[in-house]
């Protein structure tokens, strides 16, 4: 269960009350405030707070006040220009604070993005819940034979059952020992900060993660990509849907130029120009390595 009964009650209470404000609000984001969007088997993403909207990006770019006589399409055009030419500062005027519940191994991958403010649930002071990420059968896959970082064919039959049993049994056994080390009848027990080292990487943790829109877009560009690991990609995709409601013009530009766009090297761009002229270009005549050429072909197809 991603949310406890206490958390559900807290969210209901928060959403049932509102406060008057003079600051700009985004109607789409207001609908997401405090609501938990379930991810994986026990995880979630929920918006705790946010600042700014599409207008804040435009205002910062123009360093002006008020909408004046400009039309919304003019603002959208400016945002697209900023995104197209990699202007980052105006997007930093918007911020979002998320409450995320995620497996520890996903958190270790996520924390590589060092441009956010993070405060994680502490297992030094508190006892972690008995909740583990166990992949659905369709997400159990063998190592890819062409990509050292990726997955290959999905496991089936006895092999899938064997792996699932290991994951469940090992996680349960490790947590049993964790509990037993903390305190037992007639024993002093081990400190929480030491006992936690026996926990598996698929146990769930939680944190508050605050980031500006520019750095959030960088995170989403990498983690919402189809080549990203599934377990972090589903979190990124959930955040994408939230951001699309928060700053629709900025997200549309991001989707077009970053998620749906591509960067070409000088050699790749030269190959495209030659192809447009009708020349037959091969890996041998491209000046690219086999790996570069394979990625280039995948991009064109």
From TrEMBL:
<keyword id="KW-0285">Flavoprotein</keyword>
<feature type="binding site">
    <location>
        <position position="218"/>
    </location>
    <ligand>
        <name>FAD</name>
    </ligand>
</feature>
<feature type="binding site">
    <location>
        <begin position="212"/>
        <end position="214"/>
    </location>
    <ligand>
        <name>FAD</name>
    </ligand>
</feature>
<dbReference type="GO" id="GO:0050797">
    <property type="term" value="F:thymidylate synthase (FAD) activity"/>
</dbReference>
<feature type="active site" description="Involved in ionization of N3 of dUMP, leading to its activation">
    <location>
        <position position="223"/>
    </location>
</feature>
<dbReference type="InterPro" id="IPR036098">
    <property type="entry name" value="Thymidylate_synthase_ThyX_sf"/>
</dbReference>
<feature type="binding site">
    <location>
        <begin position="112"/>
        <end position="114"/>
    </location>
    <ligand>
        <name>FAD</name>
    </ligand>
</feature>
<keyword id="KW-0274">FAD</keyword>
<keyword id="KW-0521">NADP</keyword>
<feature type="binding site">
    <location>
        <begin position="109"/>
        <end position="112"/>
    </location>
    <ligand>
        <name>dUMP</name>
    </ligand>
</feature>
<dbReference type="Pfam" id="PF02511">
    <property type="entry name" value="Thy1"/>
</dbReference>
<dbReference type="GO" id="GO:0032259">
    <property type="term" value="P:methylation"/>
</dbReference>
<comment type="similarity">
    <text>Belongs to the thymidylate synthase ThyX family.</text>
</comment>
<comment type="subunit">
    <text>Homotetramer.</text>
</comment>
<protein>
    <recommendedName>
        <fullName>Flavin-dependent thymidylate synthase</fullName>
        <ecNumber>2.1.1.148</ecNumber>
    </recommendedName>
</protein>
<comment type="function">
    <text>Catalyzes the reductive methylation of 2'-deoxyuridine-5'-monophosphate (dUMP) to 2'-deoxythymidine-5'-monophosphate (dTMP) while utilizing 5,10-methylenetetrahydrofolate (mTHF) as the methyl donor, and NADPH and FADH(2) as the reductant.</text>
</comment>
<feature type="binding site">
    <location>
        <position position="89"/>
    </location>
    <ligand>
        <name>FAD</name>
    </ligand>
</feature>
<dbReference type="InterPro" id="IPR003669">
    <property type="entry name" value="Thymidylate_synthase_ThyX"/>
</dbReference>
<feature type="binding site">
    <location>
        <position position="120"/>
    </location>
    <ligand>
        <name>FAD</name>
    </ligand>
</feature>
<keyword id="KW-0545">Nucleotide biosynthesis</keyword>
<keyword id="KW-0489">Methyltransferase</keyword>
<feature type="binding site" description="in other chain">
    <location>
        <begin position="120"/>
        <end position="124"/>
    </location>
    <ligand>
        <name>dUMP</name>
    </ligand>
</feature>
<feature type="binding site">
    <location>
        <position position="223"/>
    </location>
    <ligand>
        <name>dUMP</name>
    </ligand>
</feature>
<comment type="pathway">
    <text>Pyrimidine metabolism; dTTP biosynthesis.</text>
</comment>
<keyword id="KW-0808">Transferase</keyword>
<feature type="binding site" description="in other chain">
    <location>
        <position position="196"/>
    </location>
    <ligand>
        <name>dUMP</name>
    </ligand>
</feature>
């Amino acid at each position: 269960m991603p949310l406890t009964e206490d958390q559900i009650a807290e969210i209901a209470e928060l959403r049932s009350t509102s406060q008057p404000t003079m600051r700009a609000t985004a109607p789409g984001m207001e609908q997401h405030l405090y609501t938990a969007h379930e991810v994986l088997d026990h995880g979630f993403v929920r918006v705790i707070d946010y600042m700014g909207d599409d207008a804040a990006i435009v205002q910062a770019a123009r360093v002006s006040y008020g909408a004046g006589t400009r039309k919304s399409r003019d603002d959208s055009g400016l945002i697209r220009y900023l995104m197209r030419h990699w202007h980052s500062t105006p997007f930093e005027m918007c911020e979002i604070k998320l409450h995320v519940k995620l497996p520890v191994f996903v958190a270790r991958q996520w924390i590589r993005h060092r441009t956010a403010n993070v405060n994680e649930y502490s297992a030094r002071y508190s006892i972690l819940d008995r909740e583990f990420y166990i992949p659905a059968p369709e997400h159990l896959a063998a190592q890819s034979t062409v990509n050292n970082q990726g997955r290959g064919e999905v496991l089936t039959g006895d092999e899938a059952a064997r792996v699932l049993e290991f994951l469940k049994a090992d996680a349960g056994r490790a947590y049993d020992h964790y509990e037993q080390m903390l305190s037992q009848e007639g024993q002093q027990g081990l400190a929480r900060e030491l006992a936690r080292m026996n926990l598996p990487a698929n146990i769930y943790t939680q944190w508050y993660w605050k980031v500006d829109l520019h750095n959030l877009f960088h995170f989403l560009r990498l983690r919402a990509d189809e080549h990203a690991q599934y377990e972090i990609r589903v979190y990124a995709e959930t955040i994408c849907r939230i951001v699309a409601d928060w700053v629709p013009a900025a997200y549309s530009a991001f989707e077009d130029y970053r998620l749906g766009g591509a960067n070409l090297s000088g050699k790749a761009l030269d190959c495209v120009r030659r192809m447009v002229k009708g020349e037959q270009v091969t890996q041998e005549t491209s000046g690219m390595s086999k790996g570069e050429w394979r990625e280039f072909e995948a991009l064109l197809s």
